[in-house]
Design brief:
Elements lengths: L6 E5 L8 E7 L7 E6 L5 E6 L5 E8 L13 H8 L9 H9 L4 E6 L4 E8 L3 H13 L5 H19 L2 H14 L12 H6 L2 H11 L5 E7 L3 H14 L26 E4 L6 E8 L8 H12 L5 H8 L6 E8 L4 E9 L4 H18 L3 H17 L4 H14 L6 H9 L3 H12 L4 E5 L4 H5 L7
Parallel strand pairs: 4-8, 9-13
Antiparallel strand pairs: 1-2, 2-3, 3-4, 5-7, 5-8, 6-7, 10-12, 10-13, 11-12
Helix pairs in contact: 1-7, 3-8, 9-12, 9-15, 10-11, 11-15, 12-14
């Protein structure tokens, strides 16, 4: 991703502190949508997007750590830590943290992914100083007490059990394991019952100290915010906790070149007594920095991204074989996935798989029609804009962009890039991705002969 503008300004400190560096990454229009970045001397980055017309603001802190940073014995540590940062600091108890945001009608949450973690609060613009103080306090001064580790272990085990009860979720975790094997990308974000039970307070505290220093963090705020004010409030909060780190701290660069191995032709079947069989058929996709990702996005939309897509029409509308069927892409620093999901009656698994394989083969060999591509470009453009209609989505965009790409792209530039995708580019990426030998994950009560035939779907 590229910045439209990058004007550097130096701001000397009247208090004798080391100088911060501020850049305007996207100038916006008449001050609306302006994106700025300030890098503090300790390596903490603060990015904001200003929208004066709204009355809300979302404040978040992104950590450059995810489940792929865990060793096998630390499986689930990133997610465990996400829970523990809500349990209390020297300044606030767990109740104080939640009550502070509840009292102003805000919402606060967090999520852990394979390559990053995010903590955020969405409030009225007048309550942004409170959100900044609370979230920064959590990130910089968490106590991580032994009793909290023990109490939260049960909560996380319940979360694992809840996920296990939803085969539609489990099949995607199973597919990650099918594709990546016993590697960090192939292991579940939540960890397993065994790894969660094995984690100690000492292990989690060391993980916290290693991955939550300022060089690993990106602060993001969007909405009716003033950049200089946000920077001042964040800096004050980090300084109070003694968490700004070394004055020569350098922000951690985006991930690159990890070279995760991917499988082809593998089949995993988990036999469960479910009403439906849940199926994911897929192959390696593209890394998130691959310039072909725009064409792949158009391909994905046309193939399985909506009610007019090929897979939806062929599997559901024409034959009534599934209620839910779609395709999706996932991009990581060094690799990616392209997958097709369907939920159907167990006896119709092979019919659904054959149709999906046939459509993938047709698109790989013959390409999509110009009409399909034009419709997909319009759909992708519209969904991109509609998905950025609230301050939470905007905060996610600028925070993730800073952490994963190190730059920002305006919505107009994104729309221009989508519109510039040509039919030839879509057909080329279809050949590159869809002609690969797929792998398959299935959850459901298949009979022995049905299960034995699954290998035919990837041959």
């Amino acid at each position: 991703m590229t910045s439209r503008s990058s004007v550097t300004t130096a701001r000397p400190s009247s208090e004798g502190r080391a100088v911060a560096r501020t850049q305007t990454l996207l100038p916006g229009k008449d001050g609306i949508g302006t994106v700025r970045r300030t890098t503090l001397p300790g390596g903490l980055r603060i990015v904001t997007e200003t929208l004066p017309s709204v009355r809300s603001a979302t404040f978040g802190i992104w950590a450059h750590v995810g489940s792929r940073d865990e060793t096998p014995t630390l499986g689930g540590a990133t997610h465990y830590l996400e829970h523990l940062l809500f349990k209390g600091t020297r300044k606030r108890s767990a109740l104080d943290i939640s009550a502070a945001i509840d009292a102003v009608g805000g919402e606060m949450n967090a999520f852990t992914a394979k390559e990053y973690t995010c903590y955020y609060a969405r409030v009225l613009d007048t309550d942004l100083p409170l959100a900044i103080d609370v979230v920064c306090d959590m990130l910089t001064d968490s106590l991580i007490l032994e009793e909290d580790v023990d109490a939260e272990r049960g909560v996380i085990l319940e979360e694992i059990a809840m996920t296990e009860d939803d085969p539609g979720d489990v099949v995607h975790e199973l597919f990650a394991r099918t594709m990546f094997g016993d590697t960090p990308l192939g292991r579940p974000v939540l960890g397993t019952v065994d790894t969660v039970n094995g984690l100690t307070r000492g292990q989690i505290a060391r993980f916290y100290r290693k991955h939550y220093d300022p060089t690993h963090l990106v602060v993001a705020a969007a909405g009716n915010v003033d950049h200089a004010t946000v920077v001042r409030q964040v800096r004050r909060a980090f300084e109070k906790a003694g968490a700004l780190g070394r004055t020569d701290g350098v922000p951690v660069a985006p991930r690159t070149g990890l070279r995760t191995l991917r499988a082809a032709g593998r089949v995993e079947h988990l036999n469960r007594k479910t009403e439906q069989a849940h199926v994911v058929l897929g192959m390696p996709g593209l890394a998130r920095n691959d310039e072909r990702r725009w064409a792949l996005g158009v391909l994905n939309t046309a193939l399985g991204g909506g009610m007019s897509s090929r897979l939806f029409q062929e599997v559901r509308e024409k034959r009534g074989l599934a209620y839910s069927v779609y395709s999706y892409t996932s991009g990581f620093a060094d690799c990616g996935l392209f997958g097709v999901y369907a939920g159907c009656r167990p006896g119709q698994v092979h019919d659904v798989l054959k149709i999906c394989r046939d459509e993938l083969h047709k698109v790989a060999s013959d390409g999509l029609t110009d009409d399909e591509i034009a419709r997909a470009v319009g759909q992708l453009s519209g969904s991109t804009v509609l998905g950025l209609e609230d301050t939470g989505a905007l905060m996610n965009r600028i925070g993730k962009s800073e952490l994963c790409w190190g730059t920002q792209m305006s919505v107009d530039d994104m729309l221009d890039r989508i519109a510039a995708v040509t039919p030839d580019e879509v057909r080329e990426v279809a050949r590159d991705v869809l002609e690969q030998r797929p792998s398959l994950s299935v959850i459901g009560p298949l009979k022995d002969k049905q299960a034995d035939r699954l290998h035919q779907a990837v041959s």
